[in-house]
Design goal:
- The chain is α+β, with helices and mostly antiparallel strands.
- It has 3 domains: 181 residues, no CATH class; 152 residues, no CATH class; 140 residues, no CATH class.
- Helix content is 43%, strand content 14%.
- The protein is built from 19 helices and 14 strands.
- The strands form 5 sheets. Strands 3, 8, 9, 10, 11 and 12 form a 6-stranded antiparallel beta sheet that branches. The chain has a two-stranded parallel sheet with strand order 1-4.
- A hairpin with a 3-residue loop joins strand 11 and strand 12.
- The two termini are 27 Å apart.
- The structure holds adenosine monophosphate and magnesium ion.
Length: 501
């Protein structure tokens, strides 16, 4: 049965479907019994150029549940493969998502609009094609938090409850998420065609990605090598930025790594509390493959899989030359990551200013290493440990000292830190620290409280309040005092997150 159609308050385009036939399956969403709007992202809708006046709650919930399609939608499920926990699965694909089309946002940037949880597709592999309210709101919250922290990310435009139950470990209320992304092209999309020996498809995909995301490299002599270079750089930057706010993605499979450099797929992700590089929250990550501190190594592993898919396109002279060239680029990942990581940490310490060299000095690197070691040794909350440095820069180290069981070691560190501040950076340090170190991140206990209230009682208030708090992460607000505080150590020690949502 064909879904009914209505005018959409925004024009949809279909460059992916037009330029890449054979890369997807066309099908419509499965209708849901009783759609009701949980949340709509008006600021994002405005950014995309929606005529919000036309989006009454009824229209919104019909459109973003998939019950009514925009008249110009051409819904497709995209094919992709992927390495899951290191094991290659030749066919994954959109098992519960459909791309409705692309919009050109207010700045002219092309962005995908896709439904997630919209029913089974040929890629569902026995799954029900659905999503539950909890994970949908979780993706909404964490994506908005990342966006507010200035980290490239896919974002939620709408969350709509479906009025039906989905079966997980127990019956849960169902929902559909509308996701906006620079694109949904993953490392796994390349792998899908490479694994089938379809070199021309890989080339078409690479050409499409260059044109859509990296037009600057299109004229390069070996544009595919340049593509590898920019994707490597973007990922190094993304992972550095994640880690500087204590983010753990949790399931960095190659199908969950977008070649655009945006964070995608908020499943078992979580923010770290006490600083510990070995932190893992995901219930299925027994070996700690996706632990906080392992994220750069895993990103490089995934990028190596990406490079392998491009090899047949790189060999202008010989295939050995292609391997040498690709390896040389992959070899830059760790140093690029480390430079960005140290530079980011230097800014977080309030040590940067416009007249200073852009690279972190050896003395600053040692200070940064020692700071992390102190945080780890004393189980200091990552978010507050950094944030309270601002008060210390203002001459009040009490809050910071309270986080350290043995403040003497902190005092030695603070002395060294002040020693590295110069006359230009010192007066502005506190403001700079507050502008780069958030006070509010979506803490795990708060996220869980918000999701439980929505799931068990249909109460969206905790979700809305938390969303409000994390949307302005750098600005202290007395109404959100509780939201800055860590969970109990007991809660964090027992906290587990889940995939397969
Ligand atoms: P994820 O763990 O969300 O990255 O998903 C991995 C793969 O499983 C993708 O191909 C998804 O489309 C698919 N998948 C996840 N959950 C479901 C579901 N409930 N029904 C069908 N496919 C699913
Ligand atoms: Mg995924």
């Amino acid at each position: 049965m064909n879904a009914s159609r209505m005018d959409f308050p925004l024009k949809l385009e279909h460059s992916y479907a037009k330029q890449l036939p054979g890369f997807f399956v066309s099908l419509e969403p499965t209708p849901v019994p009783k759609p009701s709007l949980l949340h709509f992202n008006t600021p994002l809708a405005i950014e995309l150029g929606f005529d919000c006046e036309k989006l009454t709650p009824n229209v919104t919930q019909q459109l973003f549940s998939g019950n009514v399609l925009p008249s110009d939608a051409q819904p497709i499920a995209q094919a992709y493969a992927g390495h899951q926990f290191g094991n290659f699965v030749p066919q994954l694909g959109d098992g519960r998502a459909l791309l409705l089309g692309e919009v050109l946002d207010q700045t002219g940037k092309r962005r995908d609009v896709a439904l997630k949880g919209s029913g089974v597709t040929p890629f569902s592999r026995g799954g029900d094609g659905k999503a539950a309210v909890g994970p949908v709101l979780r993706e909404y919250l964490i994506g908005e938090a990342m966006h507010a922290l200035g980290i490239p990310t896919t974002r939620a435009l709408a969350a709509v409850a479906t009025g039906e139950h989905v079966m997980r470990e127990r019956q849960l209320p169902g929902a559909v998420l509308t996701r906006v992304a620079s694109s949904h092209i993953r490392v796994g999309t390349f792998q899908y065609f490479a694994a089938r020996g379809q070199v021309e498809s890989v080339r078409k995909l690479a050409d499409y990605v260059i044109q859509r995301h990296y037009p600057d490299v299109s004229e390069d002599r070996n544009c595919y090598l340049s593509l590898l270079r920019v994707v490597v750089e973007r990922q190094a930057e993304l992972i550095a930025r994640w880690m500087l706010v204590g983010f753990i993605h949790g399931v960095m499979n190659t199908d969950n790594m977008a070649v655009s450099g945006e964070t995608i797929d908020y499943g078992p992700c979580a923010f770290m509390e006490a600083y510990d590089p070995d932190t893992v929250f995901s219930s299925i990550d027994h070996a700690g493959r996706y632990a906080y501190g392992n994220q750069p190594a895993i990103a490089l592993w995934n990028l190596t899989r990406f490079a392998e898919t491009l090899l047949p396109l790189l060999g202008q002279e010989s295939s050995e030359q292609a391997v040498t060239d690709a390896t040389a680029i992959l070899d830059t990942f760790m140093s690029t990551f480390q430079n960005l990581w140290y530079n980011g940490a230097r800014t977080k310490l309030g040590l940067t200013h416009s007249e200073k060299p852009t690279t972190t000095s050896d003395a600053e690197r040692t200070l940064i290493d020692d700071w992390f070691e102190l945080l780890a040794k004393h189980d200091v909350d990552h978010t507050l440990g950094w944030r309270y440095l601002a008060d210390a820069a203002d001459g009040n180290a009490c809050n910071l000292q309270a986080l350290f069981p043995k403040p003497a070691e902190l005092d030695i560190f603070l002395k060294r830190w002040r020693g590295l501040q110069d006359d230009v950076s010192r007066p502005k340090a506190a403001t700079k620290i507050r502008a780069t170190n958030p006070l509010y991140v979506p803490r795990n206990h708060l996220v869980e409280e918000a999701l439980s209230a929505a799931t068990d009682d249909g109460n969206l208030k905790p979700f809305e309040t938390l969303l409000h708090a994390i949307q302005r992460p750098f600005t202290e607000d007395p109404q959100f005092t509780q939201y800055a505080l860590p969970a109990s150590t007991e809660f964090t020690a027992n906290y587990r997150t889940f995939c397969g949502t």
